[in-house]
Amino acid sequence: MLPQQTIDKLLNLVVDKPDEVLQHLQSAPQLANQQDRHGYSLLHAAASYNHPHVIDQLLSDYNVSPNLVDEDGETALYSVETVDMARLLVEQHNLDTNHRNDEGQTAAEKFEAEGDFPEIAAYLSSLVPGGAAASILSQTGNPSAEQAGAGTVAPGEATNGAVPPPPLPHGMSLELGTMAESEMGEAPDPEFRRRIEELAARPDFESEETQRELRELVQDALGGMAGESNVRQRTS
Fold first, then answer.
1. How many CB atoms lie under 10 A from the CB of residue 235?
2. Disordered: where is this region (predicted)?
3. Is the pTM of this model over 0.70?
């Protein structure tokens, strides 16, 4: 017979003995929904330690609320450390990507602010309509990029002569950051901006051919930026 467990003991077991946790839940199913004094739950722990089979059973077999929050108002989505786990929670279990914690941050915004898992931040940001799109032209100095990302410019509508930025091609993400003015180097290439705007204005923008052209254009631009960065590092 398994010894009687508490939520604190099960949370410790989740780290490297997730199957034991599931065994204990069979005899004490009420623990599936319990939280410790900080609001931390088995769902948060399983997301953090990347145990998808525990996540699946908690949500499917024990009816744990997918949007259960801890003392900071954060769901399990804020605890993930891999893109695969983020995808599982969002795409299979419908966790709310628009949920905001007690500091007013979505999970995407918190990951972006902390900078520990940029690939997770990029994935979550890509789920926001216009979120990834605005990043392309914002790096080229387009004044309408921020408005487009915020949804204040309708698709196809021109602002000050500029076309709102298109969404990134499928399978591509773009990470944004900040830098000191002294690190910015030369002004954005106006030709790159012109080509982006030209593609965005095309009526066949969603076609495979136009998406391929956009993907190649962005890859060329990012490759050039990386090359310039390497040169600066070697000569400094």
1. 6
2. 138-174
3. no
